[in-house]
Amino acid sequence: MPRVPPPRLPYSEAPSEVAVTPEATTSPVRRSARRTPTRVSEPTVGPISPAIAGPVTDRTAPHIADPPDRRITDGAAPRATDRTADRLADLEGRRARAVTSGGPRRRGEFGARERIDLLLDAGSFTETGLFVRARPTGDGSGRPYGDGVVTGHGTIDGRPVCVFAQDSTVFGGSMGEAFGEKTLALMDLALKTGCPVIGLNDGGGARIQEGVASLALYAELVRRNVRASGVIPQISVVLGPCAGGAAYSPAITDFTVMVDGASHMFVTGPDVIEAVTGERTGAEELGGARTSNTVNGNAHFLATDEVDALDTVRDLLSYLPANNLERPPQYAPGAAPAGLCLDSVVPDRLGQAYDMRDILRAVVDDGELLQVQELFAPNIICAFALVEGGTVGVVANQPLHAAGVLDIDASEKAARFVRFCDAFGIPLLTFTDVPGYLSGVRQEQAGIIRRGAKLLYAYAEATVPKVTVVVRKAYGGGYAVMGSKHLGADINLAWPTARIAVMGAEGAVGVLHRRELAAAEDPEALRARLVAAYESTHGTPYLAAERGYVDAVIAPRDTRSHICRALRALRGKRAPMPERRHGNIPL
């Protein structure tokens, strides 16, 4: 069913600098749309030489200078004629040279403008800084137009966005002074107009021949990222190398998409590591797309190719507001999934695993989830979904992986997701089945106390509507952190299968009745009786309900209807916080 976007609310009193056509504001939003790319983009700025398509060959060296017959010489003699027609012809010639200033691309790779055309709505891109040229360096390398980055604005599903794309065929996509200033200007435009900014990264880091100016602009870019954090969504797409100082900007942005087998992101490359430490490694092992998605958590989405990466960005943006002053998009309510009875999802045996995603898909619209960091810390699920057409952020323990336990990686993954949702007014749904925090020497020495506290901090700090469903286990600190009433959850529900206690029955009996068991003639029979007694008292949700820690114990099949009612009731929630500069999260 087509989903129509909401009317755009004013971000500021200043007129928007991003033009939106009337057709764009009424076009239906297409979520999860997959488009067939064309190898050569339609011209976006006047007549373009066929050379823009160029032969796709292996790149042997970055483009350094324009061909001699195309180079525009500074201080050229004035034309003999000054007719308007001549000036227009000169303009078209400059445009053509500007959009073809790059060199040959890597085999199978799209150019910077082709990538933008794939990302944005057809014909919506308006380029900025087309005639900006590289600063002279005195080494004869030339001054190509654009300086290795294409910047501009357009629309995705009719909603304005700003985008920049690094061009790896110009100076290897490295950041020079003009390159950096164009990117900063685009970031400033996105902040002023209140629209998301998307960066397509494919570059070699700082431009050595421009010296400290390149380093200064990396710091300026990070400062813009920090200023925009929590104000506008920032998405990084890594389509090639992203090394050195260039890697810190994607780390600060909200989401990072990488392409399997093509993307690399690291501070220090394999050659330097071997030279300094003697340690041998490869780019894939060090910071490839799979490493970044599964091992270190630097990335949030793993794409199969460039088209899939750009479609992931479109899909992600369909859940997000344009900025922190607007509500998330509201679509026509989706259908409640059919075919799964939640009353029989949770196994009777406590130690038996099940897939939490089955429960989530039975609750959200059309059974659709967009998981964030799906391959990293899989013992916890973070996902965007729709409930009655409105965006929600879902956090849930996953019993299929390590019984859904909270460890360092899971805590940090969920904490960042919760803070993003809170920054952009996205309600939080929490589904709890957690045995607690992971114990062990490695976790303790790695800082589970400090790093696990990040999730406690994130939930306690969040002021958006928070609804929690306790599905099965909610033991110890895991109960407290997973959206408990005590951390500020608004509505807490529990299934009859919920077990809310300090610890499981076996562990509790072993601690409380250690001496009795040691002295018993038949310790196993005594243990069984004590476990059964503990379960009847503490292994249910009713003790928590008696104290008001759970608002209702519900039949699993009624979960969606209870969540819908809770979110409707909380739509106008206000939760003022004390005045302060900012909190001090345990980083």
UniProtKB/TrEMBL annotation:
Classification via Gene3D superfamilies: 2-enoyl-CoA Hydratase, Chain A, domain 1
Record's compositionally biased regions (Basic and acidic residues): 80-95
Annotated GO MF terms: acetyl-CoA carboxylase activity; propionyl-CoA carboxylase activity; transferase activity
GO cellular component, one term: acetyl-CoA carboxylase complex
GO biological process, one term: fatty acid biosynthetic process
Domain CoA carboxyltransferase N-terminal: from-to ranges: 76-332
Region (Disordered): 1-108
Keywords carried by this UniProt record: Transferase
UniProt cross-references to Pfam families, sorted A to Z: Carboxyl_trans
Ranges of residues in domain CoA carboxyltransferase C-terminal: 324-569
Entry protein name: Carboxyl transferase domain protein
